[in-house]
Amino acid sequence: MRKNGFARHALIETLHTVQSSFGYLDDDAIRFVAASLRVPLSQAYGVVTFYHYFSLKPPGKHTVTICAGTACYIKGADKLVAAAEKRLGIAQGQTTKDGQISLMTARCVGACSRAPVILSDGAVAGEVTAEQMLEQLERWAVE
Amino acid sequence: MTIEELEQIAESVRAENAKYDFEVNVCMDLACSSQGSEKLREALVKAVEASGKTVLVRRTGCMGPCSAGPLVRVDPEETLYRHVNADHAEQIVSSLGGEPVPALQCDLSEHFDKQVRVVLENAGHIDPEKIDDYIARDGYKALLTALVEMTPGGVIHRITESRLRGRGGGGYPTGLKWSTVAKASGDQKYVVCNGDEGDPGAFMDRSVMEGDPHRVIEGMAIAAYAVGANKGFIYVRAEYPVAVARLTTALREARRRGLLGSNIGGTTFSFDVEIRLGAGAFVCGEETALIASIEGRRGTPKPRPPYPAVSGLWGKPTLINNVETYANIAPIVRNGGKWFADMGSERSKGTKVFALTGKIANTGLVEVPMGIKLREIIEEIGGGVPDGHKFKAVQTGGPSGGCIPAEMLDTGVSYDALMAMGSIMGSGGMIVMDDTSCMVNVARFFIEFCMTESCGKCIPCRAGTAQMHTLLTRICDGAGTLEDLELLEDLCSTVREASLCGLGQTAPNPVLSTLKYFRNEYIDHIVHKRCLAGVCKIEAPAETPVEVLA
Prior knowledge:
The complex is a heterodimer of chains A (about 140) and B (about 550). Chain A is of the alpha+beta class. Helices cover about 45% and strands about 15% of the residues of chain A. Chain A has 2 domains: about 10-50, no CATH class; about 60-140, Glutaredoxin. In chain A, helix 1 runs antiparallel to helix 2, helix 2 packs across helix 3 (about 40-50) and helix 5 (about 75-90) packs parallel to helix 6. Chain B is an alpha/beta fold. Chain B contains 23 helices and 13 strands. In chain B, strand 11 (about 390-395) and strand 12 (about 400-405) form a beta hairpin. At the A-B interface, helix 1, helix 3, helix 4 and strand 4 of A face helix 2, strand 9, strand 13 and helix 18 of B.
């Protein structure tokens, strides 16, 4: 906040910083940011819920993000999502009960030439098969 | 920094590079780096040290043919190696000065021959984190020339003369946009770079921002001089952390060299740029929504007029252009408007970068002159559809675009020709589909995308896309009727006519274009209860004969 001179228009920047430090945005964090930047809490909450990138729930220990861009879709990303959902027993956007793994989808990470693409804890892997992804999930489940 | 000083830097970098016998360029773009090109680079550096040869190992931006990555290019021979990993490092280094390594050599002459590189001229040749590399390739020369030798009006005249059109998708004449902002009254103006490449399946802007960030900054600075702005914003997607990091470095280096900040080039012109992060909202690619997002609000569009050129960021006149548009500016100022206008087709000038992906042999980034036939891009540059499958359609323009069938492939690429085919140029995603893709399913995919990305402000888009999605899902499940098709077409025209912004107005395009060119697939799903591509799971085949409406 200091970096942006507590400017009100730096709300999204500030929320990004908070989310990258804590992994998600809880009520206290949103309240604190809104008060510090002197923006109405409703505006801060409105911004958080409008943009997909912000999360109100804490992420799991590991996160697998499956790219759902067009190129990935054409190359079978939907099958990857289905396989992961089946293995983890959760829907996309959720975290397993033991808090180990979160399953996310992304709109497009821009690595379309290597579709289908997944992000394992942020690391990009291209031309992924369901087997490779499930192997990774097995490793994470016990870590 | 004066032009003479700039020349001195360029000279010293060239002299420094000339000390090396060879240059080994390693592509560090996302596709290559996700396959370990950083490890490869380290191995190359080690191998060079061990060999005692004088070799410069450089990290570069995207070289183009991503499907052959990780890529390494050895200069001055321009030998391109494909699928290189760290184990090959010694082999490559020991081959320097002798015969190239045949097993790794990559012959993509057909891929490169038809390409013309303007925007991507530096990609794969410079280290994006070193401003001096950019300066050595005539970087910032256009900016200083414009500041010292040209009037703002002169710059705008040159851009108008080039007949450059906005590369973000709409194709609005750039010169006209600039002169509108220049004429707008007000002492505070802004220039904004739209780097919110929301179109899924496109990554040109990411590659430009990551591989040649100074080119974008230089373009923005020239624009600021031309329209009379002193402050700029680059709006980048949060999904592109590398682009953000590279731009941050580039801005710092440009300030250090006095190419941004106060009194640039010893003139009275001052300009600086800030980065603003997006947060995952496709609608923010729309001008007015993007402005709202920069101001720290929800990204919902506003009715236009007033256009941002008159009342934009904080109510001030604002120039908004796309990354690729700005990337074209410096070469136009350097080489003249006529040089640019000589390339391309009648009403679409210059080149266009496309991200070629999907079911095609050579995926990656290509830059082609406007007017080139789609067939040349797909069959020659792209190498055709692999694995013996048959080409079905190419999708351009992302969720706002359409699917173009095989029989239209001989059309030349231009804003107007694509529009006439029911698609749009868009930002430049080009996704090839083969006979394993179901066009009804693809239409549903795009409508689902637009439905989730609709900001919800206006009803035609918010409710219309949801209803279209329901109808398409029903057809995909084999439960659709022929009346549904009529309803779908009706809805398409309502959403197109009545939506507030570009997202809604163009959302029906994927449906309309598939209905136009692949109507038989819809009929197959509805009447024959089958999906020939085998994508849709139609469980109960039609047992009772379906009543076909007249």
